[in-house]
Every structure is written in structure tokens, then in C-alpha cells.
């Protein structure tokens, strides 16, 4: 439809009912305006991605696991609604606290941080973490996990898979970790900047004893592109922006600009962000802008940006699809990574400088 003409749905005079379901609430959002409407449309787009069996990547920036959101991610994995993940090291590190029963408490943001420091309390906005009982205890767990890690090139997906395995077998509450669930369901978890986290800091004690760690970051970006290359439909649900967002989106430029596969990028992208687009920052970059880079198939369809706090919008988005979509069979991409990598490699070397793969969808 021409957006410059006077047509579209009538705006209803909204009525709320105590018996309303999450689906009813999302319909209220979708039939309203502003970011409420965007949230409603995002929820419906996520539902469409699941229904069409798209390969779905969840990107998680910042630190959402300290507020318990790892439990939401875990449930989405179990239902087959997330097939691979790109996140920060902070989200993986802090998620492991719950598995090992280490204390994380609600605190306050109106506080004197000098006093918190004296009381050995670390603060993430209004979340409190004990310095010794939690952080140092977690550090000991991580250090023990990776003291015998093979001295050969590895990807962050392999790193997280090992974490999930060890937490599954040894922690007090393995059911309280999306990383453990990802291990069980063969969901690859990539850490976009592992050295910018406590995970890497804890490898320092082993490195000082001359143990080497060799991150094969090029292999993992090829693996990520290979996942998209093999997908009939692909989409991303982005919580925030930053490096996780770009890591998932740059699969398009790698396939087309570098490897010349004529893939076309993602079919669907949902972003929940509070970042502004006019400052030029990656977190605020519009999804439509990504079309100019070949990150998305179509600048006019299949994309929704919700300008909202992810801690408010993500539970609504997740509960909506959990309420109206049937469980999908897990794609178990982690165990298929070698084959996907080989497929992309073989196709590239057959015709390294030509567009040999016709676009899998209409642009």
C-alpha cells in the first residue's frame, strides 16, 4: 500500500479486560501507535519467523542475565525458537552464577558506591553481586573449567559448549542456565568479544603459566555465515545493538561482498533498542540502513525496530510466541557446524569469483 494515501486500519477505542491473554495484549499494542504498535508488530513477526521455520539467531548485548533473563532465553531454546546465539561475555559469565547457586540480589541505583565498595558489593545498575561469594567464586569455577582446555585453535562456540557441559555435569542448578540448555540442544553460543569480559580475564592465570589460548575468530565468522547460507529463511531477534548485532548481520556482507555468493542477507530482523540512529552508532543504526550493506534482503519488509527497554519488551515478545506457536524440532546446529562450513567452502572453491548461488529469496 502507498503509505502516502489515507488508508489503513481504524484505530480502536481500546478496552481492557481482566481476562485478557498475552495475545490479546499484543493485539492491543499492534492496533495502537508509536512504539506500542512496533512492539505488537515485532511479536507477530517473531511468530511468523517461527511458523516459517526460519533459522533464528538471538543477539544479546549488555548484561541481561544478571536480571534473570537467561531463564527466558532457556525457555525459547527448549521450544526451538532460538537456533543460535551471539552475546557478550558478560551474559555468559553472569548466567553461570545461577547454575552454581552464587548470590545475585536486587539492590538499588540510588546508592553511595564508595560504601558499596567497602561492603564488597558490585553493582550493575540496581543489581547487587557479592565480590567474594559470587565473583571470586565464579572466577574459581571458570579457571578450573579451562585449566585443561586443549592448546589448539578454538571458537567461542566451542568455549561455551564446554562451559555448558561442565555446568550440566557439576553445578548445583544446571537447569538455571541458558548456556547449559544450549549445550543440551546443540545451540551454538558465540561470544562476539570474549576478551572484553571476565571469561578471558580468568584465562590470564593459566597464560602466566605459559598455557596458550588461540581463538580462531575467522573460522567462527565463517561458521556464522555458513549457518545463514544453508538456511532457506533466516532471521535475527536483536536485544540491544553493539557487536552482537553486527556479528549476526555481517554474515550477509561476508557471503556476498567477500565470498560472492549472492545470498542477499537476512529475511527478517527485529531489534529492540533505546539507541538513537542520528549519532551514527552501531546500536542505533536502522535496520533499513543495513540493506545498503547487503545485511538484509529487503529494506521495506520483514523488519521491525522497537525503541524500548529490552527488559520491558523482550518478555512480552517471548511470551507471545510461547503462547501461540507450537514447539519446533531443534535444528541442533552445533553438531552440524563442520558440515555447514565444508558446504560453504566447497561452493566457494568451485567458483571463487562469481555469483554461483542464485538468491534463495526475492529481494
Summarize this entry quickly:
This protein is an alpha/beta fold and 363 residues long.
Could you describe the 3D structure shown?
The protein has one domain: 3-Layer(aba) Sandwich (Deoxyhypusine Synthase). The chain has a 6-stranded parallel beta sheet with strand order 6-2-1-7-8-9, with helices on both faces. The chain has a 3-stranded antiparallel beta sheet with strand order 3-5-4. It starts with 21 loop residues before the first helix and ends in a 13-residue tail after the last helix. It has 15 helices and 9 strands. The protein is α/β, with parallel strands linked by helices. Strand 4 (121-124) and strand 5 form a beta hairpin. Helix 2 crosses helix 14.
> Proportion of β residues?
5-15%
The CATH class is: Alpha Beta
Task: Count all strands and give the number.
Answer: 9
Report on the biggest sheet: 6 strands, parallel
User: For the largest beta sheet, what order do the strands appear in spatially?
Assistant: 6-2-1-7-8-9
**Helix-strand makeup class:** alpha/beta
Instruction: Write the H/E string, N to C.
Output: HHEHEHEHEEHHHEHHHEHHEEHH
As for the number of domains, it is 1
Amino acid at each position: 500500500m502507498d503509505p502516502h494515501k489515507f488508508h489503513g486500519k481504524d484505530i480502536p477505542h481500546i478496552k481492557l479486560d481482566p481476562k485478557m491473554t498475552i495475545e490479546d495484549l499484543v493485539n492491543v499494542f499492534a492496533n495502537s501507535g508509536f512504539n506500542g504498535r512496533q512492539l505488537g508488530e515485532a511479536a507477530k513477526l517473531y511468530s511468523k519467523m517461527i511458523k516459517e521455520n526460519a533459522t533464528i539467531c538471538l543477539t544479546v548485548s549488555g548484561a541481561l542475565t544478571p536480571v534473570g533473563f537467561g531463564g527466558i532465553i532457556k525457555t525459547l531454546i527448549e521450544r526451538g525458537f532460538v537456533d543460535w546465539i551471539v552475546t557478550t561475555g558478560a551474559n555468559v559469565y553472569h548466567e553461570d552464577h545461577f547454575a552454581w547457586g552464587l548470590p545475585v540480589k536486587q539492590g538499588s541505583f540510588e546508592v553511595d558506591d564508595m560504601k558499596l565498595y567497602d561492603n564488597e558489593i558490585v553493582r550493575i545498575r540496581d543489581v547487587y553481586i557479592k565480590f567474594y561469594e559470587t565473583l571470586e567464586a565464579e572466577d574459581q569455577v571458570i579457571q578450573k573449567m579451562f585449566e585443561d582446555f586443549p592448546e589448539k585453535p578454538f571458537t567461542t562456540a566451542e568455549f561455551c559448549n564446554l562451559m555448558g557441559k561442565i555446568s550440566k555435569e557439576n553445578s548445583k542448578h544446571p537447569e538455571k542456565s541458558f548456556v547449559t540448555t544450549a549445550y543440551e540442544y546443540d545451540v551454538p553460543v558465540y561470544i562476539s568479544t570474549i576478551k572484553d569480559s571476565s571469561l578471558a580475564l580468568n584465562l590470564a592465570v593459566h597464560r602466566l603459566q605459559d598455557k596458550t589460548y588461540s581463538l580462531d575468530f575467522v573460522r567462527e565468522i565463517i561458521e556464522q555465515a555458513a549457518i545463514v547460507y544453508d538456511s532457506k529463511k533466516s532471521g535475527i531477534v536483536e536485544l540491544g545493538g553493539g557487536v552482537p548485532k553486527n556479528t549476526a548481520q555481517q554474515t550477509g556482507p561476508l557471503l556476498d561482498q567477500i565470498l560472492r555468493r549472492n545470498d542477499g542477507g537476512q529475511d527478517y530482523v527485529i531489534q529492540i533498542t533505546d539507541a538513537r540512529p542520528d549519532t551514527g552508532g552501531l546500536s542505533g543504526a536502522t535496520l533499513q540502513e543495513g540493506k545498503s550493506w547487503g545485511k538484509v534482503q529487503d529494506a521495506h519488509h520483514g523488519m521491525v525496530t522497537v525503541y524500548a527497554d529490552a527488559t520491558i519488551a523482550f518478555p512480552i515478545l517471548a511470551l507471545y510466541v510461547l503462547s501461540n506457536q507450537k514447539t519446533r524440532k531443534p535444528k541442533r546446529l552445533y553438531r552440524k557446524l563442520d558440515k555447514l562450513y565444508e558446504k560453504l567452502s566447497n561452493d566457494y572453491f568451485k567458483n571463487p569469483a562469481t555469483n554461483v548461488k542464485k538468491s534463495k529469496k526475492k529481494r
